[in-house]
């Protein structure tokens, strides 16, 4: 009988935390003040790709609020879901 060790990388499964609106507003504030992406990234300790994404969405939609996401609507209404 052979045994195999199965390793699961949880970083692929786990969702990341969203940044607060205040942090996203701070990114845009620094961008409008003339700082570049790299400087904002270092100052706020946020990845460069996240900084680019925040600014791109701000330019496109004019807001830093969370945008609605796609996906299948829930089958159950919130009143009938178990807690």
UniProtKB/TrEMBL annotation:
<dbReference type="InterPro" id="IPR036388">
    <property type="entry name" value="WH-like_DNA-bd_sf"/>
</dbReference>
<feature type="domain" description="Sleeping Beauty transposase HTH">
    <location>
        <begin position="14"/>
        <end position="64"/>
    </location>
</feature>
<feature type="region of interest" description="Disordered">
    <location>
        <begin position="64"/>
        <end position="83"/>
    </location>
</feature>
<dbReference type="Pfam" id="PF25787">
    <property type="entry name" value="HTH_SB"/>
</dbReference>
<dbReference type="InterPro" id="IPR057667">
    <property type="entry name" value="HTH_SB"/>
</dbReference>
<dbReference type="InterPro" id="IPR009057">
    <property type="entry name" value="Homeodomain-like_sf"/>
</dbReference>
<protein>
    <recommendedName>
        <fullName>Sleeping Beauty transposase HTH domain-containing protein</fullName>
    </recommendedName>
</protein>
<feature type="compositionally biased region" description="Basic residues">
    <location>
        <begin position="72"/>
        <end position="83"/>
    </location>
</feature>
């Amino acid at each position: 009988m052979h045994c195999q060790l199965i390793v699961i990388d949880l970083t692929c499964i786990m969702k990341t935390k969203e940044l607060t609106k205040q942090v996203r507003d701070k990114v845009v504030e620094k961008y409008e003040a003339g700082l570049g992406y790299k400087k904002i990234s270092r100052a706020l300790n946020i990845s460069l790709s996240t900084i680019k994404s925040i600014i791109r969405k701000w330019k496109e939609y004019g807001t830093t609020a969370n945008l609605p996401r796609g996906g299948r609507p829930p089958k159950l209404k919130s009143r009938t879901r178990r807690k």
